[in-house]
Amino acid sequence: MIDPVSSALLEPGEVEHLARLARLHLTPEEQDTLRGDLGRILEYFRQLRTVDTAGAEEMQRPVTLVNVLRDDVPGEVFAQDIVAALAPEMEGGFVRVPRTVETD
């Protein structure tokens, strides 16, 4: 297997393979453009390999983030007739929503 960072230029077959994996239908011109773009990205990784990180501390983010959460306190419950009036569609006493998961 070719080390992607050590070989900044991708072969045309590799770009076709990546496009197929990503389910992209690319014209030959788009493949050439993508090959150049990916080559430049891989060149940046090659440059990053040369950076001395011996004294650098590992981090997940460049800034410290703290989640500020409120207590989950039950509130007022709407009556079913109010919910039915606000819902775009009801079925059997329930709010009907569009399917979000495909089934085979």
Structural overview:
- By secondary structure, the protein is mainly alpha-helical.
- It contains three helices and two strands.
- A two-stranded antiparallel ribbon has the order 1-2.
- Helix 1 packs across helix 2.
- It is flat and about 65 Å long.
- The protein starts with 11 loop residues before the first helix and ends in a 9-residue tail after the last strand.
String of helices and strands: HHHEE
Distance between the termini: 36 Å
Sum up the overall morphology in one term: flat
Strand content: under 5%
Structural class: mainly alpha
CA radius of gyration? 26 Å
Q: How many runs of DSSP E, i.e. beta strands?
A: 2
Q: What count of helical segments does DSSP give?
A: 3
- Average pLDDT, rounded to a whole number, is 86
Biggest β-sheet: strands ordered side by side in the sheet: 1-2
The largest pleated sheet is described as: 2 strands, antiparallel
Give helix % range. 25-40%
Q: Which residue ranges are poorly predicted, with pLDDT under 50 across at least 5 consecutive positions? A: none
Task: Give structural attributes.
104 residues; mainly alpha; two-stranded antiparallel sheet; 38% helix
What's the arrangement of secondary structure elements?
Layout: H1 12-21, H2 28-49, H3 80-86, E1 90-91, E2 94-95
Antiparallel strand pairs: 1-2
